[in-house]
Amino acid sequence: MTGVTSGTEFLPRPRRRRRTLPGMGAGSVAVVVPEGIGVPSWDLYELAIPCTVFGKPQPDLADPWYDLRLCGTGDGPADGTGLAVRTPYGLDDLVGADTVVVPSVPDACVEEGEPLPPDLIEALRRAHEAGARMVSLCTGAFALAEAGLLDGRRATAHWTHTAQLAARYPEVEVDDSVLYVDNGDVLTSAGLTAGLDLCLHIVRRDLGAHVANQLARRMVVPAHRPGGQAQFVDLAVPATDDEGLAPVLEWAQAHLDEPLTVGDLARRAAMSPRTFHRRLRAATGTTPLQWLLGRRLARAQSLLESTDLPVEKVGELSGLGTANNLRHHFLKHVGVSPSDYRRAFPRTPPAPVGAPTPRRGARAVSP
Question: Any signal peptide, and if so, which residues (predicted)?
Answer without folding.
Answer: none
